[in-house]
Structures are given as C-alpha cells and as structure tokens.
Amino acid sequence: MKFLDQVKVYVRSGNGGGGAVSFRREKFIEYGGPDGGDGGRGGDVWIEAVEGLNTLIDYRYQQHFRAGTGVHGMGRNRHGANGEDVVLKVPVGTEVLDEDKQLIVDMDHAGQRVLLAKGGNGGFGNTHFKGPVNQAPKHANPGLDGQELAIWLRLKLIADVGLVGLPNAGKSTFLAAASAARPKIADYPFTTLAPNLGMVDLSLGERFILADIPGLIEGAHEGAGIGTRFLGHVERTAVLIHLVDGTQEDVAQAWRTVRHELEAYGEGLEDKSEILALNKIDALDEETIAEKAAELEAAAGVKVRLVSGFAGQGVTELLREAYALVQKHKGEIAAEEAGPEDWRP
Description:
There is one protein chain. By secondary structure, the protein is α/β, with parallel strands linked by helices. 18% of the residues lie in helices and 23% in strands. Strand 5 and strand 6 (103-107) form a beta hairpin. The relative contact order is 0.13. The model has no long low-confidence stretch (mean pLDDT 85).
C-alpha cells in the first residue's frame, strides 16, 4: 500500500426532491382536494475518523463524491424518500481544509463525525398551500439544491515521538530496533520516502507510538529534496529524537542543518522537547565516540546520548527517557484542560 497524506476531493450533497401537485380523485368523493406529498431531503456528506487506516490512498482513485437526490413527492400525500448519505472515512489525525487551505476541522479522535455538506430540503407538495381562498392550489415547491465544495484532506500521523535527522542517520534501523515495524533497511545509502509508524512496547503499561520521518537535507524548507512535506507528521508529537550519524565527519554541522530546517518550518517544532543522540557507535572506537560526542555537545549545549540501532546499544534507555517526557507532556495537557479548581470554603 502506498503512503498518501494529502489529496483534494470534491463533494456534493444531494438535491431535495420536488413536491407533487396532485388531487384526490375517488368515486363518490366530489371535492377530494389536493393530496400532493412532499419531496424527500437530499443526502448529506459526512466525514468520519476511523481506526485501522494510516493513509489516504483510497482517495487516490476516487475524488468525486455525490450524495443521493431526494425522491419527488407523489399523490395520496406520499412523501418522497430521502437521498442516501455519503460518508468519507479517513484516518485519525486527518485535517479537513477548504480550497484555500484554511482549516475546517481536525479529525483527531476515532469515531469523530462531522457534517461537510447538508442535503437540500424537499419541496412542499400542493397540500401545504390549500386554504379557504385557494382550495385547489396547482403549484408545489421544487426541492432545494445541495451544497458543492472542494476540500483538501491532509493527514498528520498520530504519534507520541518523532525521529528526525539527515538521510542515512539510521532512523529506520532505530525504528526497527525499537518496535515491531519493519521499514526498508539496507547496507547502502538511501533515504526513506514515506513516514513509518511503530508501536514501542517497553512493558505492560509503557507503550507509545514512534514515527520515522524521511530525512531532511539543507534547503528542505525551500523545497530541496522532498522538502518539509512530511514534517507535518511530527507536529502532534510530544518529543523529538534527533539522531546524528556518528560515522560522518562533521556531526555538529549535521545537527545544525536539521535544527535550521525545523526552525524554518515553524509550527512549534523548534520548541518541542528534543533528545539528541549520536547513532552508529558500534562502528566507532571509544576514542572517536568521546571526540564526536564532545563536539556535538559543544554545538548543541545539551547532553548527548550514545546509541546504536544496529546493535541495540542504548536503545531501551533512550526510549524510556522519551516515554517519561511523553507522560510529562500528557500530564501538562491534562492540567491545562482541567483548569483551576473552584475554591470552596
């Protein structure tokens, strides 16, 4: 299955059915009067966040969705049937934007259901227009038109921790070592082309979702490489794990490059809690490790963790530190949502 995180779709709710012009005509009933029924409502267009999806690939092959039209009213006061609704099912974390890329709604939890386009009301039949002055109305209302709009669907993965770094920093190997995910790993240089998710299971009660974001390069915020297209997937994370390849010459410059791209992208990524780790230490001797770590600490001004995704060295300790920061972040959000307690004597 291909990964697709942004798509434009066109939706249209159904037109309402027209009201009927009809008169009661039965034997021995001389003045039957009007008996035209109302038209049915047009179908609505809904969007629903469901579990089990992690891509918008379904909308790669169908971009136009139209709800059913209401059935016209009929004689004998029979109302037309309502048109069928259309439900767009999307992964949790999908943002719905209008044609100008302005946010309409954020589908951030499973089961969330939002009305995008309301169907047109059905028209009144001529029964509604009878009165003492006009006892035999010969007109009825047509149904109202449905709504038509173009929307963008943009997926931002729901993850607790995001992996960032230059291409070939070992993010996919780290993800495979930390979780049951199986991203592509090879012994030649390449970059991941789509985000990968993995569930980290430290113990029975210690679980979180880890996202591997395709590598950034210098100038990514200006569109170089694959740009910052996938950075939206770490906007929801609580913590960033920044992996730096210890086998490259200038580890400090590697850190600065990614930090510059995060700051240029904005959206609060530069303010997120960050754990800096020197990766691939299994390929270095102790003297080189100490030298590279000191160089990286001097540039970043924070403690550098030493890990090897390939050998599994230091991975569990790093994950437990990330989990603690995730729990702290969730606690702060819960406290903000609770608000100040009411004072009671």
